[in-house]
Amino acid sequence: MNTNLSRAANGFLLDLVMELKNGFIRRCDKMGLTSEEIATLKDMTIEDIHYIINSEVSVLSFQINQDNLARLMTQAREEQTRKQRIDRALALGGSIKLMEHFFGLMSNDVAARRRIAGIKVRAGRGTVLSDEQSTELWEIWATNDNKTLRSDSDEGLDLMLLAAEQMDISLTAVWNTVLRWENENLTAATRRRA
């Protein structure tokens, strides 16, 4: 172990000793130290502490928990993807209701994110798709209907985001239209027959 890391580890040991001397033993308990180890640390003198802190030999060892690291990296990437989807949905005109449904964001969180991103929202009812836009959206949605997409799934949201971008329309209008289709039990097969 290099000298700087040894000293950092020994500095951490000093923190434990100082906590013990102040009567706080929970941190040592949580770290799994035995009663004998805690007693040894608690009985250290200033000279003992000085010697150990300046030693190049570390009494602590560090190791990376590979499972925890992998789990945390996965969670970090998932959270980054989630934040990107939130920003994308807001930029495409996602309503407060939509943002709460898919991301669990409250209205004040949505308003703050919009303000930070410089997104202006028009008050009042959202836009309704024209017949041409509805038909174009249906073609996009029906292409993927064989996967039995639902508007409340991650895949459904991704497709609605893509459709809103391609058609240059509000994500909320896309979502409301798809919800209406689902409420009417429309599928690609029934729409083709109509």
TrEMBL record:
Record protein name field: DUF2857 family protein
Q: Which UniProt keywords apply?
A: Plasmid
Q: Which domain of life is it from?
A: Bacteria
